[in-house]
Design goal:
Elements: H1 3-27, E1 31-33, E2 39-41, H2 42-58, E3 64-66, H3 67-71, E4 81-89, H4 91-95, E5 102-109, E6 112-120, E7 125-130, E8 134-139, E9 142-146, E10 156-161, H5 168-174, E11 179-185, H6 189-195, E12 201-204, E13 208-209, H7 210-222, E14 226-229, E15 243-244, E16 247-250
Parallel strand pairs: 3-4, 10-11
Antiparallel strand pairs: 1-2, 4-5, 5-6, 6-7, 7-8, 8-9, 12-16, 13-15, 14-16
Helix pairs in contact: 1-2, 6-7
Length: 252
């Protein structure tokens, strides 16, 4: 399959996983804690099983790095190309009854994201992109191309993590910038809002994992934005332990 076909295949799996997640939410579920004290639900496991089975059937030569499998000790060896899967990004918000959670499926080659799908189940939105080709958003109005925007004269629209809303590093980072608003949200939705030109910047200081960022980074860069470490160097993948440093996602 070429990249366009890979993206469409990942999109179908993400929609199927989104439907499964919503059905589990509708009937109720229990939340438990993993060894790192982060929450996990039946929906995380079920969505991941669906996605990983589909990816391995369609692309058996491409390894899959998936959040819950890693937590269970199943550590794959990355290849030149590797899938990164977060089946339910924003589990805290999902468990709390909020809508800011999503499904992330990204493909990395030679350490850099090349394509990605981010699906937002609660709002029936899907974002997709191939770096160097373009990005799109699909919702009830159909599918349309998206691009990042130039910051407006009124000031930057900044997005930040809901769970670090009192982080002094954010205030320090924004000092001296013309900022119109700061909104706190969960999950990779923040990066997609920058990609579609609804916001300008998302600085992140706390740790994330590679499966959190591979898909939204591909969408953002396909839409004309950038996602780098805070010092401006490339945010690369396949690092020991899969953890990311702080990063900055921004538009044009």
């Amino acid at each position: 399959m070429d990249d366009a076909a890979l993206l469409e295949m990942a999109g179908r799996l993400a929609w199927d996983a989104a439907s499964l997640i919503l059905s589990i939410r509708a009937r109720g579920f229990a939340t438990s804690q993993k060894t790192d004290r982060s929450p996990v639900t039946e929906a995380d496991h079920a969505a991941e099983a669906l996605i990983t089975a589909g990816l391995r059937a369609a692309t058996p030569l491409i390894p899959v790095v998936a959040e819950e499998e890693i937590s269970a000790g199943h550590i794959p060896r990355p290849g030149r190309a590797t899938w990164f899967v977060d089946p339910l990004d924003g589990t805290r918000d999902f468990a709390a009854g909020r809508d800011s959670f999503c499904v992330n499926i990204g493909l990395v080659r030679d350490g850099l994201p090349v394509l990605g799908i981010v699906c937002v189940p609660a709002t029936a939105e899907m974002f997709g992109g191939i770096v160097g080709v373009g990005a799109w958003k699909q919702d009830a109005g159909g599918r349309r191309q998206i691009r990042t925007r130039l910051p407006p004269e009124t000031g930057l629209v900044v997005l930040a993590s809901r769970h670090y809303d009192d982080d002094p590093r954010l205030r320090d980072y924004l000092r001296g910038m013309k900022v119109a608003s700061v909104t706190h949200l969960g999950s990779a939705i923040k990066v997609c809002r920058v990609a579609e030109g609804a916001a300008d910047m998302y600085p992140r200081f706390a740790r994330t994992m590679e499966w959190d960022t591979a898909a939204p980074q591909a969408v953002l860069e396909a839409a004309g934005g950038s996602m780098t470490q805070l010092d401006g160097t490339a945010l690369r993948y396949g690092k020991p332990g899969w953890a990311n440093p702080g990063f900055l996602a921004q538009g044009s």
